[in-house]
Amino acid sequence: MDIAEFLITQKPNYINVGDETDLFEAAFTNKIPVMLKGPTGCGKTRFVEYMAWFLKKPLVTVSCHEDMTAADLVGRYLLNNDGTFWHDGPLTIAARNGAICYLDEVVEARQDTTVVIHSITDDRRVLPIEKKGELLKAELIAGSGKKCTHYFCKKCGVYIYADYEFAIRRLTVRTKTLLKPKDFPPQAHIFVKDKDPWINIADKNICYDEMYDPKIAWPKESLDRYKKYLETN
Questions:
Q1: Is the terminal CB of the chain with fewer CB neighbours within 10 Å at N or C?
Q2: What is the pLDDT of residue 139?
Q3: Shared-domain flag, residues 91 and 151
Q4: Could you give the CA distance from residue 112 to residue 93 in angstroms, rounded to a whole number?
Q5: Where are the beta strands (DSSP E) in the chain?
Q6: SS3 label, residue 161
Q7: 131 in any annotated domain
Q8: Residue-wise pLDDT tens digits, 87-110
Q9: Closest by alpha carbon to 50, among 73, 94, 20?
Q10: The pLDDT value given to residue 171
Q11: What is the tally of helices (H) and strands (E) in the chain?
Q12: Domain check: are 12 and 112 in the same one?
């Protein structure tokens, strides 16, 4: 399927009545899902079409109903003359191509169906495709403005490590997921300006409002080891 088929090429007839376009654009920039609430015919669908055109993003629309299953969203195996083949559902198509997925009348869908959108709309940004054993990952933008990809456990969904575009030839591992996390005490607490007020960090000397500078935060032996690795690989 050509994702270009989902692009809206002509500007929809929509008149901004407030700051809804700014709010939608801010949510889109920060990878935050949006729920539109209003009576039938108030312009929710037209607004989404306008924003898809404005952001130059494909728009995949799903008309939800009580008989819709998780497979209708994620995908299923189908039969043809050559045997079985996998067919992506609309949610998977949107996730693979960075499109906007509009779940029209999502409240009409059963809870056991909409549960599949939880992991793709929260901070995990992944879509489990259980029938294929695939965990579809969505790219995020780090505080540096560079891309980063998060990786999760296929069994439990726990966030394990990240691959940051700016971190050349190194991965960022969540030490709490290791068998002996106490063997790896933190060397830096980053983006503390965004932490919840009830979180208390004892060692203020390793706190950074944003991303840390490895040349300052890392021990000398770590810097030397990393330099040697880059020179030999």
A1: C
A2: 61
A3: no
A4: 20
A5: 59-63, 75-80, 83-88, 100-104, 126-129, 134-137, 140-141, 147-152, 159-164, 172-173
A6: strand
A7: no
A8: 999 999 998 888 899 999 999 999
A9: 20
A10: 86
A11: 8, 10
A12: yes
Q: Which two tokens stand for residue 58?
A: 């494909």
Q: How many domains does the chain have?
A: 3
Residue with tokens 């083949």: 85
Q: What is the pLDDT of residue 151?
A: 75
CB 176, CB 152: distance < 8 Å: no
Q: Decide if 166 is inside a domain.
A: yes
Give 110's DSSP letter: -
List, in sequence order, every residue forming a beta bridge with 100; answer none if it has no partner.
59
In a shared domain, residues 102 and 148: no
Nearest-CA neighbor of 127 among 115, 139, 136, 114?
136
CB 177 within 8 A of CB 160: yes
Write out the two tokens for 149: 């990809």
Beta bridge partners of 103: 62
Would you state the structure tokens that stand for residue 222, as one six-digit string?
A: 């770590």
* Residue numbers in the chain where pLDDT is lower than 70: 1, 138-145, 152, 154-157
CB 58 within 8 Å of CB 52: yes
Same-domain pairing of 44 and 6: yes
Is pTM beyond 0.70 here? no
Total residue count of the chain as it appears in this document: 233
In the numeric block, which tokens belong to residue 47? Answer: 């607004």
